[in-house]
Structures are given as structure tokens and as C-alpha cells.
Design brief:
This protein has 210 residues and is α/β, with parallel strands linked by helices. Helices cover 58% and strands 11% of the residues. Bound molecules: CO-5-methoxybenzimidazolylcobamide (B1M). This is Methyltransferase cognate corrinoid protein.
């Protein structure tokens, strides 16, 4: 079995110590972080998604898979961020209210950091008011909203509305993303852009700031 298949299996089986060690081994061999993410960690998480949907995996197992994926991402983080780079801009990001999914957001954060952006990551389950307060405090150029559940998409709209009500809407660009999000939804709630993945999110933020 190839190293990538092995890593994918470790994510599927929730073997977080194994995933951490193998990610480190692949880094030591000089494999590019993005290759490790796409061919190993993400490949495993894609299988988890299919099995979860089919009812072949349950929440506790999926949580172990998420932990395994995160342990790999933590190893890769320092290899992707270049602290000597001048700041490309400030991005405030969070997963919206009611939504606890953070793996995709973490990947977006990692890619943005590696592209030289300063990131304020509010975490998960972030209330619209908390976004408003954080915008007042940190004055970012971009606000990034992530949602993985169809039921929490409405919280994106609420967050955009809350920023409008506080007179902050025109001070920031709003970028949205996550599996159920589309360009038409982004247009509908009045966001400035939609990105289907972490690389696209980075390009979008560059374009919106630049
Ligand atoms: Co959840 N879950 N989950 N889950 N979970 C999904 C999303 C689901 C599609 C699974 C399924 O049924 N097939 C389904 C949602 C169905 C729907 O709404 N239509 C679902 C469900 C139902 C649930 C629960 C309700 C289950 C339950 O309790 N009965 C529950 C909800 C909890 C809550 O949030 N309130 C729940 C819980 C969980 C876990 C806690 C077990 C775990 C999350 C752990 C964690 O994140 N720390 C989990 C997981 C892991 C998943 C799946 C399997 C994988 C998600 C993931 O991490 N993907 C997921 C199935 C799937 O997506 N196939 C599923 C990998 C990640 C890299 O991709 O997040 O899409 P993704 O991010 C991408 C892009 O979307 C984009 O870039 C990222 C990188 O390329 N992107 C952005 C994301 N955010 C962005 C922001 C941007 C731009 C791009 O700009 C700001």
C-alpha cells in the first residue's frame, strides 16, 4: 500500500497518532504539504463523508477521523506558513452559529496564512454579534464565513445582516464557503464572493483586497 493510501486509511480508521507520525514522515521525505493533504488526508476524509452519508459510519467514528485529519494538518501548518512574508491583508474567519465543522475552515486558514494573510480565527459556532464585535475590534479587510450544514446557511445571511445593521458592511469584503454553499447563495445573501475550496478562497481574498 502506498504512503498516501496508508495515510487515507489512518484518517478513515481514526488513527490519529498514526496519521500524525506518517504525515511527519512524508514531510521529512520532502513531499509537498498540499500533496499530503490532497492525496492522503482529504482522500481519507472523502471516504468518511461517503460512509457517514450511507450510515456506515457514525458521529463518534467521524469525530475520530476528524481528529486524525487535524493531527496531520497541525504537522503541516508550520511548513506552509512563511512568517517572513509581508502581510497580504487581514482576514477574520469563523464557522457560523450552530455549526461545529472546522476542518475545511482550518484548511482555508492554513492556505491564507501561507499566502501571507494575517488571520483572526474565531472558531466554530460563532454568533452574528460575535462577528460584529470582532470586526469592530480587529478591523479586518475580509470576513470569511464557513458553513457545512444546510441548516446553518441561514446564519450566514444573519451575519451579513448584522454587519449591515451595525454600519460595518461597507468596511469589509465578505467571503463565504463550505460544502452546501454556492455562488448563487453568496449573491443572494449579498456576500462579495464565494470560494469552493481553500485555494480558491486565497485567490478570492487576494483579488478582493488587491
Ligand atoms: Co458532519 N455533516 N455533522 N460532522 N460532517 C456533514 C457536513 C454531512 C454532509 C455528512 C453527510 O450527511 N453526508 C452532513 C450535513 C448534511 C446537510 O446539512 N445537508 C453532516 C451532519 C448531518 C452532521 C450532524 C448533524 C450529524 C449528527 O449529529 N447527526 C452533526 C452537526 C454538528 C453541528 O455542526 N452542529 C455533524 C457533526 C460532525 C462531526 C463533529 C462528527 C465532524 C466534524 C468535526 C470537525 O469539523 N472538527 C463531522 C464531519 C467530519 C463531517 C464530514 C464527514 C466531513 C466534513 C469535512 O471536514 N470535510 C461531512 C461530509 C462531507 O463533507 N463529505 C459532514 C473535509 C473538509 C476539508 O472539507 O469542510 O467541505 P469542507 O471544506 C472545504 C470546502 O467546503 C471549502 O474549503 C474547504 C477546503 O477545501 N470551505 C470554504 C469550507 N469553508 C470555507 C470557507 C471559505 C471558503 C471555502 O471562505 C470563508
Amino acid at each position: 500500500m502506498s504512503n498516501f493510501n496508508n495515510l487515507a486509511d489512518m484518517v478513515i480508521n481514526g488513527n490519529f497518532m498514526g496519521a500524525k507520525d506518517l504525515t511527519q514522515t512524508l514531510v521529512d521525505k520532502g513531499i509537498a504539504p498540499l500533496e499530503i493533504i490532497n492525496q492522503g488526508l482529504m482522500a481519507g476524509m472523502n471516504v468518511v463523508g461517503v460512509r457517514f452519508k450511507a450510515g456506515d459510519m457514525f458521529v463518534p467514528e467521524v469525530m475520530m477521523s476528524a481528529k486524525a485529519m487535524s493531527s496531520g494538518i497541525e504537522i503541516l501548518k508550520p511548513f506552509m506558513a512563511d512568517s517572513d512574508m509581508p502581510s497580504a491583508g487581514k482576514v477574520l474567519i469563523g464557522t457560523v452559529k450552530g455549526d461545529l465543522h472546522d476542518i475545511g475552515k482550518k484548511l482555508v486558514v492554513m492556505m491564507l496564512e501561507s499566502a501571507g494573510f494575517d488571520i483572526i480565527d474565531l472558531g466554530v459556532d460563532i454568533d452574528p454579534t460575535a462577528f460584529v464585535n470582532a470586526v469592530k475590534e480587529h478591523k479586518p479587510q475580509v470576513v470569511g464565513l464557513s458553513a457545512l450544514l444546510t441548516t446553518t446557511m441561514v446564519a450566514m445571511r444573519d451575519t451579513v445582516e448584522a454587519l449591515k445593521e451595525e454600519g460595518l458592511r461597507d468596511t469589509v469584503k465578505i467571503v463565504v464557503g463550505g460544502a452546501p454553499i454556492s455562488q448563487s447563495f453568496a449573491d443572494d445573501i449579498g456576500a462579495d464572493g464565494y470560494a469552493p475550496d481553500a485555494a480558491a478562497a486565497t485567490d478570492l481574498c487576494r483579488g478582493l483586497i488587491g
